[in-house]
UniProtKB/TrEMBL annotation:
InterPro entries: RmlC-like_jellyroll (IPR014710), RmlC_Cupin_sf (IPR011051). CDD domains: cupin_DUF861. This is Cupin domain-containing protein. It comes from Streptomyces durbertensis. It comes from the Bacteria. Gene3D superfamilies: Jelly Rolls.
Length: 123
């Protein structure tokens, strides 16, 4: 690795679209693992737009992310929930559903759980 890694999400190493054109995940590979920038469109819900891709009952990725814009509701399998918004850091354990709140896209940077997120089963 060189001393400086310089990449742009505009020319991501990989892009994974969500079902029904409800957003996408752009991935950049780094020496410390992948970093993802996700855009979740209004109406997006994990159980509707990523579950068919992931093939699991709930999201099994652990996330450490930063919300740039928009709002999202996250509900753990045990019922614990939180609504997150711009300027907030969030850490979410595996076993959850989530959806966009309101009519603005939720844009989130994720540097822990994006490597396998929205990756088609068997890939």
């Amino acid at each position: 690795m060189t001393g400086i890694l310089h990449k742009s999400f505009k020319s991501a190493d990989e892009t994974r679209p969500f079902e029904a054109h409800k957003g996408e995940l752009a991935l950049l590979e780094t020496g410390h693992g992948p970093v993802g920038l996700a855009v979740f469109e209004p109406g997006w819900q994990w159980s509707k737009h990523v579950k068919p891709i992931a093939g699991t009952d709930s999201c099994e990725a652990q996330h450490v992310g930063y919300v740039q814009s928009g709002r999202m509701k996250i509900v753990m399998d045990d019922g614990e929930s939180a609504e997150i918004g711009p300027g907030e850091l969030v850490e979410v354990a595996p076993g959850h559903d989530a959806w966009v709140v309101g009519d603005e896209p939720c844009v989130m940077l994720d540097w822990a759980g994006s490597g396998d997120y929205a990756k088609p089963v068997g890939s």
